[in-house]
UniProtKB/TrEMBL annotation:
Pfam families noted in UniProt: Amidohydro_1 (PF01979)
Transmembrane annotation, as ranges: none
Residues annotated as domain Amidohydrolase-related: 221-388
Species: Sinisalibacter aestuarii
Classification via SUPFAM superfamilies: Composite domain of metallo-dependent hydrolases (SSF51338), Metallo-dependent hydrolases (SSF51556)
NCBIfam families: phosphono_phnM, PRK15446.1-2, PRK15446.1-5, PRK15446.2-3, PRK15446.2-6
Protein name: Phosphonate metabolism protein PhnM
Recorded name of the encoding gene: phnM_2
Length: 389
């Protein structure tokens, strides 16, 4: 009896040659061999193998890893009160990240809403995540996506919303967010007032009412919400992050929760305390590029100069991630160290041991890049060995 042989997926191979390969501790001239979406071998010098892609001396770096981006929300709501079709927004977001060298992203979605009042904001994370995973299942996404749930403790619905996520949702990070006026990011309430009124058009009286409402929510729900967010992160198997730590006391509380990643500490004091506790410090690329925080908090370059900056996030400008890495390379005079802030360090902080470096056996997430008048220019992006940008 004739038996049909089982179909096997054909082996795929690719070779990059004549590249300046950025490794964890050095930059070498050589070739990288890919096989079935992974890095097979690295060799010094150029390859004469037929079909090898000559990078003409361009740099080859690992694909960038983005831990905190509001970019998807920007595509969902490109203008106030405009709700863009979600599938189209997700695909545009995915394509934009691929085009600037990001091959792994933790999409930030807020959980915890305020359904009533002038400053209300609605629930959206569960439905948006389901749409994202449906597109992933259909093979429509170019890069790797995980979730970063931003747990807003100063809200009314956090416990309910977090209960809607489970093991299949690829929740990689849960960050404890507390935007109660008068502390952390908005210690200076006048800066919060300027931000909120510029965004929503509140009157002075409406803003005062809004602040009172937020403080009341924090008093009523804050401790329970914080405890639930910590417990939920454990259920998901997610990394727990703090947000806007300002004082040493904030960091002490973070460490007690088991936090190992600090997003955007607002002072040198907090960043230094994080390092004392073994907590990695992440700052925003726009802060680094602009030379300071739009909220008046500590400048990222100050932490970089003090040796207190470990990871960079694009925050709200995806292309800023690559730009910031090369700014750090110039500041530190150390390209591998700078590239690690957007590749190896975020991978290690989130337990992704299969990417973030150019090394045998890891995912072939790679970016071809050069500099034109000091500006990094992306010339090719590969995710799992497949060209996506």
């Amino acid at each position: 009896m004739n038996r049909k042989m089982p179909e096997t997926k054909p082996m795929t191979e690719m070779i990059f040659t004549n590249a300046r390969i950025v490794l964890p501790d050095e930059v070498v001239h050589g070739s990288v061999f890919l096989r079935d979406g992974r890095i097979a071998t690295l060799d010094s010098g150029s390859s004469a193998v037929a079909g090898a892609v000559d990078l003409d001396g361009d740099m080859l770096i690992p694909g960038l890893i983005e831990l905190h981006t509001d970019n998807l929300e920007r595509h969902i709501q490109p203008r106030p009160k405009v709700d863009w079709p979600h599938a189209a927004a997700i695909l545009a977001h995915d394509g934009e990240l691929a085009s600037v060298g990001i091959t792994t992203v933790f999409d930030a979605m807020r959980v915890g809403s305020i359904p009533e009042g002038k400053g209300r904001y609605p629930k959206y994370a569960r439905s948006l995540a389901s749409e994202l995973w449906a597109l992933r299942e259909a093979g429509a996404l170019r890069i790797n996506h995980y979730l970063h749930l931003r747990a807003e403790v100063c809200s009314a619905t956090l416990v309910e919303e977090m209960s809607e996520f489970g093991d299949r949702d690829r929740v990689g990070i849960v960050s404890l967010m507390d935007h109660t006026p008068g502390q952390r990011q908005f210690r200076d309430i006048s800066k919060l007032k300027h931000y909120v009124q510029g965004k929503s058009g509140m009157s002075d009286a409406e803003f005062d009412e809004h602040v009172a409402h937020l403080k009341a929510l924090r008093d009523e729900h804050g401790e329970r919400h914080e405890a639930e967010a910590v417990a939920a992160a454990r259920r998901y198997g997610a990394v727990l992050a703090s947000h806007d730590d300002t004082t040493e006391d904030h960091v002490t509380v973070s460490a007690a929760h088991g936090i190992r990643l600090a997003e955007f500490p607002t002072t040198v004091e907090a960043a230094r305390a994080c390092h004392m506790q073994g907590i990695k410090v992440m700052m925003g690329a726009p802060n680094l590029i602009r030379g300071g925080s739009h909220s008046g908090n500590v400048a990222a370059h100050e932490l970089a100069e003090a040796g207190l900056l470990d990871i960079v996030s694009s925050d709200y400008v995806p292309s800023a991630l690559m730009t910031s890495a090369f700014l750090l390379a110039d500041l530190w005079d150390d390209l591998p160290r700078a590239i690690a802030t957007v590749t190896a360090n975020p991978a290690a902080a989130t337990g992704l041991t299969d990417r973030g470096r150019i090394a045998e056996g890891l995912h072939a997430d790679l970016v071809r890049i050069t500099r034109v008048q000091g500006t990094p220019v992306v010339r090719g992006v590969w995710s799992h060995g497949r060209q996506v940008g």
